[in-house]
Amino acid sequence: MPVVNPLKIGNYRWRIVVLLFFATTINYIDRQVLGILAPQLQLEFGWSESDYGFIIMAFQAAYAIGLISMGTLLDKIGTRLGFIISIALWSLAGMAHAAARSVFSFSLARFALGIGESANFPAAVKTVAEWFPKKERALATGIFNSGTNFGAIITPLLIPLIALKWGWQSAFILTGALGFIWLLFWIPLYRKPESQKLLTETERNYILQDDREPETKKLPWKSIISYRQTWGICLARFLTDPIWWFFLYWLPKFLNTNYHINLINIGLPLIVIYVVSIGGSIFGGWLSSFLINRGKNPVAARKLTIFYMSLLVVPIFFASFTSSVWVAVALISLATFAHQGYAANIFTIVSDIYPKNAVGSVVGLSGFAGAIGGVLFSGAAGLILEFTGTYYVIFGIASVAYLLCWLSLHLLVDDHQKIQLH
Fold this sequence. Notes:
There is one protein chain. This protein is mainly α. 79% of the residues lie in helices and 0% in strands. The protein has a single domain, classed as Growth Hormone, Chain: A.
């Protein structure tokens, strides 16, 4: 293929990444509102640690159910319609939290939210596979995945202000409405690159430069789970997703319990943590792309980057021992930086080794494994905290989870095998 000046290729594909970035941002705003308000709601409604763990488990169980079905559904109906349905559902579910008053009703609202939000990452990864050549996918994934951090930064800024001025119900209603605003941009702007009239032919050819893969009409689960690569990726997500869930839902409670950080002053520590995390998402995508451009095999580059990231998580073990809130914030920030660098690559490995019409299903299946791990870990965390009152055990598990994740990828995911499903 002839070399083309990057400045002459066009940039419409990056506009698609911007849409994915904001969808992911809204996704994380909606799911994090409960975590920010948890100390206040726990006092207002008298929740125990296990009650809160049960509410979190409801979301994660629904997320698991949604991922196991949404990936296959997205492969059938496409990302455009899939995003329209899912973001409308999760936005309505987010707003429904305002009417909840009991553990059961909060759990029901969380369950609906989990079903809707489960489509975001399979749809976003599938969109990147459709819109980017392989050499740009990790960077594009890192950019949209940094929306998780951007959402996590905005949430502690907005939610305390809204809740203190208009009440906690308004926080759920106003953030839930953001998804409908996003749809006003997605519906008119998104088409597949093959049929997008706003693309130049140069950019279209650049996007579609990799070998085209034959489409199969149906992908039975046995075709996907028969490969050890699928098991390796699923095990990696099972081990690490629960740690990110913990960061998202339990950090406000950890800061409140250990350092008496409340709704008024919780913003700055969380903002620092997630600002640092954004760097991890971009850096992780850039590092694997850099290694590929230096001649390294794409899958080997992703795995090496994940190994580096896993080493950065180990020091989080000491976060629960320090009496300084800012030492704890620094250790947690390092771990969230590493998680996002890892995430940019674990998602991209799927599009590296599976055909495009299987990407949504594999991401959904591995996300299901991660959500099941999250269900188990949330239940265990609630019980551990209720009986011990400390975070030592939880941070100890987090410190080794990513090394075990890398080991599963090292043993089960080959560097050079491209999977063909028939």
